[in-house]
Structure prediction request, 962 residues.
Amino acid sequence: MKHDFEKLFLAAPSPFVLLDRDLKMVWANDAYLHATGRSREGIIGRAMFDEFPSQPESGPGRMLRASFKRVFEDGVTDHLPLIPYPIPGPDGAPMERYWSATHTPISGAGGEVEFILQNTQDVTELYEPARRTALPAPDLADLLRRADHVTRQIHELDSTAEFFRMIFDQAPSFMAILTGPEHEFRIVNDAYMQLVGQRDLMGRTVRDALPEVEGQGFFELLDKVFRTGEPITLKGAEIDLQRTDRGPSERAYLDFVYQPLTGRDGSTIGIFVQGHDVTAQAVAEANLREAEERFRTMAQTMPVHVWTARPDGGLDWLSDQVYGYTGGTEAELSGTGWVSVVHPEDRDRVGAVWERAVKERTTYETEFRVRRADGAYRWHLVRATPILDDRGGIIRWIGTNSDIDEQKAMSEQLADLNATLEDRVEQRNRELEEMHAKLRQSQRMEAIGNLAGGVAHDFNNILQALSGSLAMASRELPDEAPGRARIEAAMGAVKRGASLSSQLLAFSRRQALQPRPLDLRDLLQDMDQILRSAIGEAVALEVEAPDDLWPAFVDASSTENAVLNLAMNARDALAGRGCLRIELSNRHLTDQDVAGDTEMRAGDYVELKVIDDGPGIPAETLNHVFEPFFTTKPVGKGTGLGLSMVYGFVRQSGGRVTIESMPGAGTVVTLSLPRAERALEPLRSRYAGTVPGGHESLLLVEDDPDVRDSTAAILEELGYSVRTAPDPGAALEIMKAWDALDMVISDVVMPGDIGVGAMVDALRARQKDLPVLFISGYSRDAIARDGRVDAGVRLLIKPFSQEELAVKVREALDARGNAFVGDGPTEDPVPPASLETCRVLVCEDEVLIRMDIVAVLEDLGADVSQAATGGQALKALEDGEFDVLMVDVGLPDMTGVEVAHAARAARPELAIVFCTGRSEVASADEFERCAVLQKPFCDKELTAIVRRLWISGTEPGGGGVH
Prediction:
């Protein structure tokens, strides 16, 4: 049988109303409408307290609201036996009414209370007569009194429970009551809900409500408390909680107690959980510990002393550097013990400053001397800063000690320097004046040198044409012919002109020098007769030289001219009578020795002193002796170029000239010449004293027609077949139709679009071992660097004689395939050892030198690659394998030393050969398996060094070579 319960409730004689969770009336039966005097349309959807208002603080208001709350929270029926509750009547005036109410929970689909069904009875008519009179029926009166008493008790109980619930919820600590062995939640406060997150806890066990706590040990502790009845307290317990649904796990730190609750029989019926969330405190403490650890780590690693002090100024911590520096212990230095390492003279001053800083809570800063462990005192800058709390009180001092002993010393030196500032300014002004004077002199010399170079080129061509023509004319005349004397006089004039041109180039440092290792003792021995003849029999000549004299790296002929020039100057000063002494010695010049000389560097030098005991030179004259064209000799007795020529030659060679003289005390002229690593055996031409000829085919390239014709005539007279070209372009055209060519003779400076270097490069591309002899009156930089002829270059200086030309041509032809035999040794060259399988990279920017080196090495079987710049060399090293790197020290894009460093970084096993015009390379000592090959060098030297370095790297235990 089916029933319509809504109709049943509508027709029920007892009043019913249905309230939702917002206490809105959603349904009411007719009896309720009749009891309250309301219509259904007027109350449905309205909140009960809007329709039947009451003050929440009033007794009826608190009783009704408390009943609703109990039903919603506990889900159980609640009764109000008697509640006075006035309601507005039809006229709106409040009517005093008494009610008896029952509130029944109606659960929804999820099990929570969704509605309250209120059954209410108006008992006003029963209660009022009993209240006004004391004569109601005994049973009814008793019933009403008891109902009123119960209602009041319930009201008081509600008030008390509400009070304790308010305290429970508003307590700063989290609290919960768990019941039963499964620990079901019965009461939790707001703090607990904030801890675990807003989740449904009531009536659920802890394992069900807090599943993420499983495995952390807390459930086991609850079980233990319930089992034993003994409370458990924990401090700073770590717990991971999921505070939001599906949110990340969060770490919390708790101080709490599990307090057992016992029943009347003494058994445990539940557990009271109470505690505090101390996460913020724990994190702060952890951060503080971490910060302190960072501070200590930083303090221990800082290069200064670090210390801390208490608010009263006593030191309570010092870094290890303090203990290590002073040698003191913690017991000796803590508190005020640190004063013991302060210098006695500084203690009173320092103590007063520290006490004032502590008293005034200001930054502490002072300087004093601290005793080191070895007893020495050093100045320190000491600073300390107070750390203050919110009220301005000192929490701690943090200080540092910085060693400033060197700064103190520098400050004292600076004070001394400031005291002598005026003297130093004056000295500096003098130095600047000297520098400006040197600059002006350098500019004058540069201008004169440029003029001399231009004049020398054309002048020497003229002299060469004259010399060649005069020589041929002389050979055509019989010995007794009257014109021969005039020709010989003209030849003398040509030689004097050549000497003048040579002197011009010398003092302007434009000579084409060919320096090589030279034993000055041998040179003076060879010059002995010339010197004695030049100074005369009345002047005694003495030569002093040690047995261990170093070889010098100079041009031989220029050195001879310089010595001869100085000897004749001394002869003139001695007026033909006295003593001339020449001393040779080894000398190492330090940085101090060469200070102020921008062209000199410290190192080893060979000194040649020319000393006379003549009348000396006045001071006003001494300052001008090296100036060109300055002379104290009568007109016609000197050009004034002698000493300036010596000065220019020595400077161009990398040395210096000094002169010391006082009236009546004689004169000393000192030449400091750069030292060579070794001395070579004297090289003498095998054709000395002869005029050798031949039948080879020669190509002469010369732009001056007179020089070209006279030189060609001399060569043809010597038996050679000669073709001539006025410029490099014409020479290349001739070569296209001429295969039988044995040698090229070429001027260095010529007009045209094609340079001499490019011409030789093209000629040797067609004929690999083609000998080349350069003739020049002024080479500029075509075949020379800094005035030094490049290694491997054969040069004949204009003007030259038939004999000089014949010897140079014959030597070049006989040395074919042996490109680096300078003037040719007297003995036959020894065939060099084979270099088969040796891989060599040659880095040289001068194409002629590079091609000659490559030719020599390839003839010996070496696998040779070429590079013109440092960048090309490094690229070649990236792409290929090499055993030896030959590198010129001066390259257009970087130095040879820089190339060597980069090459060794990529290939540590690579052997290095530095090619240089100087006697040494300072950085060569930094490398193992390294050698210096000094220009000019012969093929035997080249082969020997390459082979030695190559073998040292292939043989077991091969070591470095320097």
